[in-house]
Amino acid sequence: MSETKTELVESTALENIDAYLDGEELSEEEARKLEQWIKTDSENADQAFRRVFLHSYLRERFQVRSIGEAQAREREKQLKEPLILPTDAEFEINSVSSKPKTKPKPRQGRRILTWRWFLLIGIGIVSTINLSVMFIKDFQLPYDEDKAFEPINFESDYVKKTFLMARIAAQPFLYEGFNYSENLLGEKASEGINDLTGGVGWAGPWADKGKNRSMIVHDTKKVNLGKNDMRLFGQLGFSDQFGNILLTKGGQYRSGAGSETVAVRYLDLQQVPKALLDSKGFGADGEILWMSFMVQSYDNAGSGRYAYIDFGNEESSLRIGKLASADRGNWAAAGQVNGTEINTASSEVLSGQAALIVVRILFRPGAEEVDLWLNPPLNQIPELKDVDLRLMAPDLRIDRVKIVSNYSTDFDELRVGVSFVDVIPAGDYD
Predict the structure, then answer these.
(1) 37 and 9 in contact (C-beta within 8 Å)?
(2) Beta strands 174-176 and 409-417, pairing class
(3) Helix ranges, 98-193 (H)
(4) Which of 116, 144, 169 is the last residue of a domain?
(5) Confidence (pLDDT) at 204
(6) Which SS3 state, helix, strand or coil, does residue 283 take?
């Protein structure tokens, strides 16, 4: 009995996907059920992706053929009137543009889904099977006949818009923007971040466990450590070489100076995508994870000073920031095993310089492959050939985030997701 029910649900879900891709309309209820069906099982997501892929492939191939046939018919017609034969360029344009555009008839009593809804489903599909790059390039937008054969590169306005839409729709499953208002903090402003509960994907509040206290800073020009404080220039923010801007919102986390500051917060594993979980917890082999955050230290000092985000558990983790095992005061990364930093990799970017750090973790048997980009372009997925740091980290099982520092450093906009677009949100400036 249960087997028949499953087959019926699968059949209906695939039928609805086909209907939507063919331009028909789905009701809000059908959309909700389809979304739930995709999210409940990775095999369902795989089936949905194959449907989208096949539909896109066949449509492209059909249009190539139909355009070719239309051109042939038009050329035969024009040969009968050789005196008015147009140029090849004119002929190509006319053959495409003169094709009447017909809209498929919607099914009765149904409401249309928005592109944003289906894009969210698509990103979920791709995230589940780690094909986000392919999806972003090929399948996100409703098909545009005028742009169908435009080369897939970021010189294309069509692809730029596609990528931007993906960023708008995507969401991290773990987020902390330290957007706690001064009114909310009240008298607690100087007492650390104990019991603060903002963000998404957490199992509980922050806990301050170090000798020193952290704080939430709203005006870096007023709260500083003197004229040499590199953070006097203003709030954390980033602009890439193409003019795309990533801004922070509200306050930002600042560790104390002089003695160790430790802030810990545990993840809600129920909010972690199932594909990333195995019998041992969060860190399933074969999966990919993305993370980003902004950071800036008081100055560029090295020599054992440290301020970093520790991502993992007490036995093993990934540390990113200013590290004691890096001689220079540059942004660096290292694995951690039982309190010892290993495989330290140091960048050329000084820790007194505000930086956007983007991290890609490929979970592998035994050890994880970690790639880091510092201040990458926001309008395209970073390529492995452009990576700033690469290292092998110990086998990770992630249950908490820890911010550890003995040197006053600011952190902000921590995002964790299954694709690049999850961790680099679009703003009004793109």
Answers:
(1) yes
(2) antiparallel
(3) 115-129, 132-138, 157-169, 182-185
(4) 169
(5) 96
(6) coil
